[in-house]
Amino acid sequence: MDRVIFLQELRKLDLQGKDAKRLYNEISSLAMKYIQASEKPKRCAHYLSIEFLIGRVFYNNLLELGVLKEVSEILKEKGVNIALFEEIEDAALGNGGLGRLAACYMDSGAAVGIPLYGYGIRYKYGLFRQTFEDGFQKELPDDWQRFGDPWSIRKEEEKQIIRFADMEVEAVPYDMPVIGKRVNVLRLYQAEGNKDAGKISGVLYPPDDTEEGKLLRIRQEYFLSASAIGDVIREYEKRRGNDYRYFAEENSIQLNDTHPVFAIPELIRVLKEKGLTYHSALKIAKQVFNYTNHTILPEALEHWDVRLLKKILPEISEILLSINTSARYYHRKDGYTPQESVATSIYIHSRRAFSMANTAVFIANKINGVAAIHSEIIKRELFVAEYAHHPEKFENVTNGVAQRRWLELANPELSALLDKQIGHDWREHFQELDKLNAYTANEDTISEFIQVKGKKKEQLLCYIEKAEGIRIDGNRILYAQVKRLHEYKRQLMTAFALLRLYYDLKEGKFRDFTPSVFLFGAKSAPSYFRAKGIIKYINEIIKLINADSETNDKLMGVFVTEYNVSYAEKIVAAADVSLQVSTAGLEASGTGNMKFMMNGAVTLGTMDGANIEIVEKAGEENNYIFGARVEEIEELRKGGYDPPCHLNKHPEWNKVVRTLIDGTFSDEGAGYFRELYDSLTIGASWHKPDHYFIFRDLEEYYRAILRVNADYQNKTYFAAKQLKNTANSYSFSSDRSIKEYAQKIWRIN
Ligand code: 26V
User: Fold this and answer.
1) Alpha-helical runs (H) found in 251-303
2) 154: which of 510, 609, 610, 738 is 20 to 30 A away, CA to CA?
3) Distance of alpha carbon 671 from alpha carbon 667, whole angstroms
4) Could you report the per-residue pLDDT of 454-497, keeping only the tens digit for each?
5) What is the pLDDT of residues 398-446, one digit of tens each?
6) What is the three-state SS of 401-466?
7) What is the C-alpha to C-alpha distance for residues 618 and 219, in angstroms, rounded to an integer?
């Protein structure tokens, strides 16, 4: 990019009387004029993902272009505060960690110079916007394009036709530059061409509880997969014509979870159409694809009914059956036992459905988990048979996050402190952060860190007052649990602990209690009944606590509405304590934990996902670990877990848990609280009682919270622990992760 010319043009721009939206579009479009995608080298990696949770691109792009500071100054001269653009809503084309990871990986790919091309869907509506009515979550459509989309370019001439048995749609690409050492492209496809097409790129995760809903999900997944494959093939043919011998040498395709797995039969279908035999196409597929698993929760592992597939994608269904036959053949040849054969089967007879994970596992050249423990668990529990016969296929790549967004942009104050202590290089070379370890016992550094934390907390609380209408004073420990709402993440356990703190405070059980605030941020899937109940329950608890003038100088809570990437940037910078309390074994990695760590929060959590690596790096003594480990949970799951027995060891909890049913709180007859209570005590649907082992860990969790509370009394002592976390967060940069993908999986560089 020609920075100088861009800045000159910007200086000439007339800003008078223009609102945020107009300025956003004009400045962004101006920058786009000077951005040129890099040449594609011979071998490229392609990242297929149903979600890209990119958030706000304006600041990030200007930062990556190296002009953020100058733009800010020019605007200031013209009387415009660059913070104005915070009015522009996030592009929330994703729902949680999986989508945000994809966005961080795109950022890092460009930053470190790896040719990485993203493929996704340009949803008309992103993840819903959340409001609370009486503490109940309500969903509103997220019309993110109403602000314009100046960072994308519609590539009309590169559109393709995607065919279903009952309809054809056009897939029109919108290209977003991803700026760094290279300029890569994130290509998002929009479905057009007839009145039903719009639905395909209409909304992220449409409800799939009806047949129509399931068909729409399949259409979305195939639409993404076929568009990406069509594009990769077209690019290849530009260079090589119809000679597909080099296809695998020149292309690697990463399947981000199972949603894009239709890309496998689609590649085979296209290559066959071009004249290759099924077997040579299969061989190519086996070299090209890799698969990342992001969850072991059975309900999240996709299976598609053969009947539905036959209806709208008969050829794809046939090819999946052929792949199933090939898998059986190879498995027999490799000596899989009959049980192993069943476990790895692509077509599952009993369900009359295809297992998308087994398809990916059979075809993938490399399969990876997203944190060390998760990669072990998938070998030991999820893909046991494949691992027994093909251990060489399995890799671990621990997740990472982009420090440029999550530290430099989110926390300029801490960044300035780092610059002063260790220089500027950490932006590109995050290992440099290690140098901070030399200062973590330095009193001046610690005291400056305390100032920074205090400032970030003030800023956040000020924002919360504006956005949520709740005034919280800053002299408190800020505990934060922000993530998707799911039972396994155990926001309900935090709710119980918070209520217990309140009761104990009321009863005068604490001598010195450091004032605290518990911050929650989470969206529940619209149809996830229990998750919605948990939101309402937490809101009820917070209402009770905040209204009590006897205790609210000591304890408050806040559940922020519309938690999104931009909110997260503010929260991770401000928090003292990062709550990461999933049932051991169930959080594949977590990435929020890394963002908090970088910004100097201690982790209060279980030995799960990347928490394990976090405390390994930063020291268990600088974090607060509690609860059952994976091995214990596995034992308990085998039998003998008796939730009431755990609860009765500490009868104080009975009072807390019974508030779900004793009338302390009301869910206005919705039945949420009773259902939650039953799920813990008698089990519900296919779950055993307390399926996520809350009662096993609750008392230990509480003790850990109180340990934090006591330690915080000595601010310097506590801040030194926090600083240790920042200093040792250098392995959690997505630059490191993406380089590992490039070396171990894509064989690029
Ligand atoms: C999806 C669903 C959808 C149906 C209802 C239940 C359910 C439960 C979980 C999921 C998650 C799908 C995959 C996912 O988002 N995994 C997250 O990936 C992150 C990036 O690797 C990782 O940090 C998180 O631990 C993991 O949960």
Assistant:
1) 263-273, 278-288
2) 738
3) 7
4) 999 999 999 999 999 999 998 999 999 999 999 999 999 999 99
5) 999 999 999 999 999 999 999 999 999 999 999 999 999 999 999 999 9
6) ECHHHHHHHCCHHHHHHHHHHHCCHHHCCHHHHHHHHHHCCCHHHHHHHHHHHHHHHHHHHHHHHH
7) 45
pTM (global) more than 0.90: yes
What's the full length of the chain, in residues? 749
Tokens standing for 148?
A: 């314009």
Q: Hey, whose CA ends up nearest to atom 20 of ligand 1?
A: 98
State whether the beta carbon of 300 lies less than 6 angstroms from ligand 1: yes
- Confirm or reject: Cβ of 590 under 6 Å from ligand 1: yes
From ligand 1's centre to the CA of 258, what distance in Å?
11
Q: Alpha helices of 78-176 — where are they, by DSSP H?
A: 97-112
CB contact at 8 A, 477 and 712? yes
Amino acid at 223: F
Q: How far is the CA of 294 from the centre of ligand 1 (A)?
A: 6
Regarding the beta carbon of 98 and ligand 1, being less than 6 Å apart is answered yes
User: Which residues neighbour 73 within 8 Å (Cβ) at sequence distance 6 or greater?
Assistant: none
- Residue keyed to tokens 């209520």: 499
Residue entry with tokens 């998938």:
378
Alpha helices in 202-305 (DSSP H): 211-240, 247-250, 263-273, 278-288
Does the CB atom of residue 294 touch ligand 1 within 6 A? yes
Long-range contacts of 614-618 (CB under 8 A, 24+ apart): 614/725, 614/729, 614/732, 617/728, 617/729, 617/731, 618/724, 618/725, 618/727, 618/728, 618/729
Q: Which residues pair with 161 in a beta bridge?
A: 170
CA Rg value for the chain? 26
Using the CB atoms, write b or e for 254-284: b if 16+ within 10 Å: bbbbbbbbbbbbbbbbbbbeeebeeeebbeb
526 vs 52, 130, 181, CA distance in Å? 20, 10, 40
Q: Which residue has the tokens 């597939």?
A: 309
CA distance 453 to 184: 35
Q: Measured from the CA of 257, which atom of ligand 1 is nearest?
A: 13
Distance 130 CA to ligand 1 centre (A): 20
